[in-house]
Amino acid sequence: MTKLRIKPLRWRAASIGRSDDIARVVLQLAGSDEAVPVALSTDEQKAIAASKAAAKRGEFATDEQVRAVWAKHGL
After folding, report:
1. Is 49 helix (H, G, I), strand (E, B) or coil?
2. How far, in Å, are 21, 35, 52, 56, 70 from residue 60 at the CA level?
3. Residues of the chain with pLDDT under 70
4. 21 closest CA partner among 9, 30, 11, 13
5. What is the Cα–Cα distance from 24 to 39, expressed in whole angstroms?
6. Residue 69 in contact with residue 60, Cβ under 8 Å?
7. Strand ranges for 1-75 from DSSP E
8. This model's pTM is above 0.90
9. What pLDDT score does 60 carry?
10. CA separation for the pair 65, 49 (Å, rounded)
11. Residues whose CB is less than 8 angstroms from the CB of residue 19 and which lie 6 or more positions away in sequence, other chains included
């Protein structure tokens, strides 16, 4: 990566207080084997538990619902 690309990345990362997160992603993309666990908030843990429970019950989005979400986001 050139200096011109690194400098704006550093500025944006520092400005939003997420430089550690961005550094981890860059290292993972670069092939680093060092995986660092990410701590989830209570709300995130609850959302994941709810999703897993829905999956166990067989509650999945229909193809039509998935297409509608894709269309909404231009995909």
Report:
1. helix
2. 31, 30, 11, 10, 16
3. 1-16
4. 13
5. 14
6. no
7. none
8. no
9. 93
10. 22
11. 10, 13
